[in-house]
Design a protein that fits this description.
The chain is mostly helical and 62 residues long. Helices cover 95% and strands 0% of the residues. Keywords: Membrane, Transmembrane, Transmembrane helix.
Length: 62
C-alpha cells in the first residue's frame, strides 16, 4: 500500500526533474559553445602575462 501512496510523489518528482532538465539543457549547451572561446582567451592572456610575471618574480627574488 505504501508503494501506491508514494507513486504519485515519485511521478511528480520525475516530472519536476524533467522540467528542470529542459530548462537547464539550453544553458549547458550555450556554456559549452562559449567555453572554448573563454579558454582560448584565458590561455592567450596567460601567455601574454607570463613574461611579465616571470620578470617580476626574478626581480622580487633576485
Amino acid at each position: 500500500i505504501a508503494i501506491y501512496q508514494f507513486a504519485p510523489l515519485v511521478f511528480l518528482s520525475a516530472v519536476a526533474v524533467y522540467r528542470i532538465a529542459l530548462a537547464v539543457f539550453p544553458t549547458v549547451v550555450a556554456v559549452q559553445q562559449i567555453a572554448p572561446e573563454v579558454l582560448i582567451n584565458a590561455d592567450a592572456a596567460y601567455q601574454a602575462a607570463l613574461p611579465s610575471v616571470v620578470a617580476v618574480w626574478q626581480v622580487a627574488f633576485a
